[in-house]
Each structure stands twice: as C-alpha cells, then as structure tokens.
Uridylate kinase (Tenggerimyces flavus), 238 residues
Amino acid sequence: DFEPAPYQRVVLKLSGEVFGGGKLGVDPEVVSNIASQVADVVKTGVQVAVVVGGGNYFRGAELSEGGMDHARADYMGMLGTVMNCLALQDFLEKRGVDTRVQTAITMGQIAEPYIPRRAIRHLEKGRVVIFGAGSGMPYFTTDTVGAQRALEIGAQILLKATSVDGVYDADPKKVPTATKFERISFAECLQRGFRVADATAFSLCMEHNLPIIVFNLREDGNIARVIRGERIGTLVSA
Ligand code: UDP
C-alpha cells in the first residue's frame, strides 16, 4: 500500500506554533530555517506543498471561549494562517525557490485562489505551493486541510510536523518507559485512542488510505530528513 520514499509529491503540515517559536507572531529565524530545509529538498526534485496553521495568531476555539462568535473567530484564525504563508513564501524566495501562495479565502492582491489543478502545475514546475486560509470554512482545522489537499493534489504522504517524536504507547512526558512506534496502523491508533491528528483529518486519511508521518520539528534538519524519505518519527498507514 505504502509507497516508500523517495516521494514524488508530499504535503507538509506545519502548525502555527512553529512559526512563532512559541510566541505570538512570526519568528524570522525559525521561518528562515524551515525555508532553507524545504529549499534543499525541492532542489532534489521532490514536489512540496505546504499547509500552514495559524495557532501562533488565533485559534477560533479559544476566542469563542472568550465570548466571540465561533465562526467569526475561526475566520480570524484562517486569516492568521495567511501571514505565516507570506513569511514562508518570502524566506523561500530569498533562497531562490519559486513559490505560490493559494488561499481558500480569496485575496487577489497577495495570493492565488485555491485551484487544485493549477497547484499541481506549479508543483510540476518545481514551485512550492503554500496553502493558506485553511479550508475557508469555520469549524475545521488545518490538519484536515492537510489531509484534504494531499488527497486532492495526489500527494503520496502527509508529513505532520509536531513537537513530539512520533506516536508513543503512553505520554512520553509522563511515562519514562513509553516507547515510540516506528510504524502503526490507522486501526490500532483508533482502537487505542492515539490522537495522531484531529478526528476529521484522521478519518480522511484512513478512509482514503493516505499515510501520515508524524515527526518532531524541534530537531533541526528533520523537515529535510522526512521529505527526503529518512525514516524518522512514526509512519501511520493502513
Ligand atoms: N480554521 C478554520 N477552518 C479551517 C482551518 C483553520 O476555521 O479550515 C481556524 C480555526 O479557528 C483554527 C485556526 O484557524 O483554530 C488556526 O488553525 P489551526 O488551529 O489548525 O492551526 P495550528 O494548530 O496548525 O497552528
């Protein structure tokens, strides 16, 4: 089932927290580092699309707990992702990589609208496509968008950057004997209640047989490693 590396086309999901280096806004050093890793692998011929989160600006759920209308707060969340997209675009282009930002909410001055077939054309030409504004719909997450975009543009794998090394049989922060899975099936994750991605994203991947690699972004160089096909993190597949 699973197509081993080298991959032809991947979707890399970066959470917003990454962009801010744990703070509000964008940390240029962090984004520059991510861009340099992506640039290195794109030059080897792998087609890379990036789905960008926005948790470093706003999370709809948090704003709505504070009293905002949930849907409107989610739109703020989606707009936040676009700022991260522009930052990543800038640092990639500084490294000589052509890019296109495509957003699910149209904003013609700064990005193309999301047009899947055009995204594929860009990828074929070696451009990095950066997907912003989530799905354009409230009540979704950018994890789900990562899965959906990967399916629609025919990526072989969803690479999900997180702050842990992969999927463990217990919380490694609490249980010192926790062990990491090199590989685990969708079914076992479900059965044992491991949260690899949000439920909607997970079920899309499982239903359509799209493998996910969960890997640790905090280790320098991991983005390039995982895109190149080095076996880091945990592979979740059928
Ligand atoms: N969001 C949304 N629809 C989407 C994607 C995102 O409404 O399709 C909103 C939602 O409020 C979310 C915020 O944008 O909290 C930021 O996205 P996410 O939480 O997925 O970012 P990450 O956790 O990856 O930083």
User: Anything to note?
Assistant: The chain has nine helices and nine strands. Residues 113 and 194 are 35 Å apart (CA to CA). The domain at 9-237 is CATH 3.40.1160.10 (Carbamate kinase).
